[in-house]
Design goal:
By secondary structure, the protein is mainly alpha-helical. Strand 1 and strand 2 (61-64) form a beta hairpin. The chain has helices spanning 2-51, 68-75, 77-108, 115-123, 130-145, 156-184, 188-196, 201-212, 214-230, 233-238, 259-269, 274-300, and strands at residues 54-58, 61-64, 244-246, 252-254. The longest helix is centred in the N-terminal third of the chain and has 50 residues, at 2-51.
Amino acid sequence: MKKKAKRRDHASINSKNIRRTIMYWSPLFLLPMVVSFIIGFVWPFIHGAFLSFTQFVITSKWTWVGFENYIKAFQDESFRYSFLFTTLYAFVSLVLINVLAFSVAFALTHKFRGTNIFRTVFFMPNLIGGIVLGYIWSMIFDGLLSAYQKSVITDTGWGFWGLIILMCWQQVGYMMIIYIAGLQAIPESLMEAAKIDGANGFQTLFKITIPNVMSSVTICLFLSLTNGFKLFDQNLALTGGLPYIINPDGTTVHTTEMLALNIYNTFYTSGSAKGVAQAKAVLFFILVAAIGLIQLRSTRNKEVQQ
């Protein structure tokens, strides 16, 4: 008994020494990451927020204008239109992507030959860059719609649904992988208990399966929602914001221009509006962060603890 006690004492002492060593040297290993985070994210964000209150052409020479840039941003009709267009797009893509991804994942978790091949095929579009996808699908849509003398850059409706189809094709496979992981984590005992109790397929799906994959639903909803609002590459390559309309007051509104592309065009097409573009970017960050946090809080409350 004494020998065992001595062994435990030695083990506890060694574990304390290891923890003490880790605590002592951990700042040395964390320092590069913290410095990189500050240089790559914190400082640019703070500097960008500051520039949103100024008028500038280059960042080293600025003039303080206060909230004037934010007032101009809210008065910009193209920015308001882009917000409505992006909101509609984000909602439609959110529903379609997650319904399709869950359906494919649910089908591929049933045992049949070739499931791994199908998973690979569905995931592969996510590996292609957004710019490349945009140009590929623009040629596909132009070829399909040429018989009807229409195009994604001349018809707002086709431009909208073109973006939806493109993003569904790209993101369904990625969300499918997350849903598959959630479905495979459901305890077999729950499914067997449901069968013993006489639950049919729909009852098992809505009472057992979906509640137990709510953690995956939370992640997929967050990713698809934020990706929908942040969409830029595909929008630039597929439609470029076209077509456009000219209002009676002379202002131009691009009918398929989303928020990120609107900010980009504001910054680079008008040298005197860089501060306005920076104010739009800050508002854009606040919008996406608020929507993402609200969505996370609402769906996490429905997660089932296994």
